[in-house]
Design brief:
Chain lengths: 237, 162
């Protein structure tokens, strides 16, 4: 028995390690994967959809959402992002490529999900983007924030930097500054985050394609392209 | 009065035997310590591996560079998360230290090699964090500290052998 004891200990630790990985992976997936129809697919989610109740129970998010592409596009991609999160910054050019490649077949929706307090400027960046959105320039600010993420990430005070971005995209800066603290902007961020929590978003970027979460490892351009193509080739009601 | 010649302490052979037994016990304690440290490293690596696989943002509570480090191109090696390779290394050290504690001498020698290799990799990763990525991740620093502790244990065992 004594000769076997070290092997028993090693096997027990191995079993515990593998069990922990499987359990935590499973709980993470369950927590962050909404029901297949938990996404807004206005033209697809019909009353015959068995998951329609889940759609009704999940929070709708800010309305109207920031979206690129036609509302009836067969592939609806919803991103929950944080402007200060480096992986989101890496996904940003990939989504731009997908937008160009798939054109009217793809609709990209952006939802605010600032990870505070982990990312100290994430909330300020979300406010800046939403304030730009009040003047119809959300996507311009969105792109600038992601493209210059490293430039403002370590700044002590990001307000002058974001004001400079506002100038660069041609915003009325005084109105932009007023909107930063407005209730509308505050509420849009709150509603997007509420939606994120209701569909189980835990981190960023979290991306859903027609209601199904796209795993993080499928976010490189070549893999995401395949995922979208597979989604488009599926028969839609 | 005639002294008892069989008294163990007075015999040089018995004394040597006692010293050997003490040294053996110390080695076993050190191997057990190595096993415990490697379990700490294993838990840390498993946490990071799960965060990587599930795509969650790792929250740094002491330093603020987890995202930068863990989303950098250095976080994977040949497509495999570095944390997963670390978990395999720590499990390897745990297995070898357990076997060595139970008297498998060759396992102890192999453990010295593995920990030496881990120490070199740790130095490289620390350099990357400090001078290339310019951010530190607390979970990576914990792993580095664990490897340093393992190296200290290995050095102590090696000095006892000499």
């Amino acid at each position: 028995m004594k000769r076997l004891l070290p092997f028993i200990i090693i096997l027990a630790v191995l079993a515990a390690a593998v069990g922990t990985v499987l359990y935590m992976k499973r709980s993470a997936t369950q927590a962050s994967t909404p029901a297949p129809s938990a996404m807004p697919r206005p033209s697809v989610v019909a009353s015959s959809d068995p998951g329609a109740d889940v759609v009704a129970s999940s929070d709708p998010g800010a309305d109207p959402p920031h979206a690129l592409g036609p509302p009836d596009a067969p592939a609806q991609l919803e991103e929950f992002g944080d402007f200060e999160c480096p992986p989101c910054g890496l996904v940003h050019p990939i989504l731009q490529t997908m937008e160009k490649e798939f054109g009217a077949r793809l609709r990209i929706i952006f939802r605010e999900f600032p990870l505070t307090p982990t990312h100290q400027h994430a909330l300020a960046a979300a406010h800046a983007a939403e304030s730009a959105g009040m003047q119809g320039k959300f996507w311009e600010m969105h792109d600038l924030l992601y493209e210059n993420q490293k430039a403002w990430h370590d700044a002590f005070d990001v307000r002058p930097i974001f004001e400079d971005y506002a100038k660069r995209i041609g915003l009325d800066v005084e109105r932009y500054k007023l909107d930063l603290a407005s209730e509308v902007v505050e509420r849009r961020i709150f509603l997007d985050m509420k939606r994120g929590h209701s569909v189980g978003v835990k981190g960023t970027p979290t991306i859903f394609l027609n209601g199904r979460e796209v795993p993080f490892e499928s976010l490189p351009a070549d893999k995401l392209r395949e995922v979208i193509k597979a989604e488009l080739s599926r028969p839609h009601p | 009065m005639i002294k008892n010649h069989a008294e163990p302490v007075s015999s040089p052979l018995a004394s040597a035997g006692k010293n050997f037994s003490q040294s053996q016990r110390r080695r076993t304690v050190l191997y057990a310590a190595a096993g415990l440290f490697s379990l700490l490293g294993l838990a840390d690596s498993i946490y990071l591996t799960i965060q990587h696989i599930t795509g969650q943002s790792v929250r740094c509570t002491i330093v603020a560079g987890c995202s930068e480090v863990l989303s950098s191109s250095y976080a994977t090696f040949g497509g495999i998360p570095l944390a997963m390779i670390g978990a395999a290394a720590y499990f390897c050290v745990f297995s070898l230290s357990t076997l060595a504690a139970f008297g498998y001498r060759s396992a102890g020698h192999l453990m010295t090699l593995v920990v030496g290799l881990m120490f070199v990799v740790t130095l490289w990763l620390f350099y990357l964090q400090a001078f290339v990525i310019r951010h530190f991740c607390q979970f990576c620093l914990l792993s580095a500290a664990t490897t340093v502790l393992l190296s200290v244990v290995v050095i102590l065992i090696w000095r006892m052998r000499r």
